[in-house]
Amino acid sequence: MRVPNLGETELLVPLHDGVFEQPMWQTFLARLRQVAGASGATMLIRSGEGEAVQFGSGRAPPAITEDLREGRVYSGDELEIGASSLRAMRVATGDGLQATIILTADNSFGADIASLLSALAPHFKVALRVLETMERERARSEVSAEAFARINFGWISLDAKSRIVDHDPQAGRMLSQSSTLRRGHYDRLTPSDPAVDRQLTALVRSFATDPRARPRAINLSHDPWIDILVAPLRLEALAGGTDAVAVVYIRGDRSSSETRAEQLVDLFDLTPSEARLAWSMAQGLSIAEAAEEHGLTIETARNYSKKIYAKTGARGQVDLVRHVLTGVLALA
C-alpha cells in the first residue's frame, strides 16, 4: 500500500471538507498553493453545458477546456499555451459534473507536483460526487418547499392564552399578508371574525387542560378559501421546550374565486359560467346555493352541473370536489 506524503495528507481533509465551505474549497486551494509553491491555485467547476464557476486565486487560461483527459496532469506546454509553469488536471463524476484544478507559478514546476495532483485525483472525484449529491438534494428540497408554499400550508403553535409561540415561514407570511388571521396585541393569534376568535380561544383553553381532546376544523374565509385545524400539541419538536399547548394548521388559497374559475376553464374546457359554478360546488355549496350565489335559476344550474360532470369526468359533487381540490389546482 502506498503511503501518502506529507503534502498530500494535509490536503485531504480540506479537500473533502471543501464542499461545506463558503466559498467552496478555499482552505484546500490555499494549502495546495502553499504545498506546491505555486503563485495561484484555481478550480473550475462545470455542470453539463453550463458556464464554468471558478474558485481560488489566479485566472484560468481560456484554452483549458473539458477536453482534457480525465485524471492526467497536463503542463502548459502540452496545452500549447506556452507556459511550463502551469499544471492542470480534470476529473468528472460521469453524471455531467466536472472540475479542473489549475496551478500556476513564477518558476517551473518539478515532477513532484504532477505526482501530487495524480495522488489527489481519486479524492478529488469523491469530493465532486459529494457536491453533486448535495446539489441534487438541494434542488429537490427547493421544489418541495415551493410545493408547500404553493398550497399555502403552515403551522402556528399557541400557549394557553392563544399567544403565538412559534410558526413556520409559510404561516409567518400568511400572518403578515392576510387580514383574516393576524398577530394581535401581546402576540395573540387573532382571527378577524369575533365568533371564530371566541371559538379558537375556547378550543385552546380546552387543549391546555385535556391534551387528548379532539382536533377541530374551522373555516375562516370562502374567497379566498382559508381553513384551519386546531389540535392539541403532541409534537415536542413544535413545543420546543415552551408553554405551547396547541397547534393551528393553516391551509389557505392564494387565488380568488375568479382566478380559480379561469384555471378550471383551462383544465376542463368549461365555459366561464360553468367554471364559476363548478368552483362554488367544489367549495361545498349545494346546486341551489351555488345558483343563488351566481344569479342562476335552479334549472340553469342543473343543466350546467350535468355539463360540468361530463367534462370533468366526475360522477357527482363529492367526486367533483376530489377532482378540483386534490388536483393541480391545489398547487396553482
From TrEMBL:
SUPFAM superfamilies: C-terminal effector domain of the bipartite response regulators
Superkingdom of this protein's organism: Bacteria
Molecular-function GO term, any one: DNA binding
Gene Ontology biological process terms from the UniProt entry: regulation of DNA-templated transcription
HTH luxR-type domain residues: 267-324
Name of the protein: Helix-turn-helix transcriptional regulator
Upper taxonomic lineage: Bacteria, Pseudomonadati, Pseudomonadota, Alphaproteobacteria, Sphingomonadales
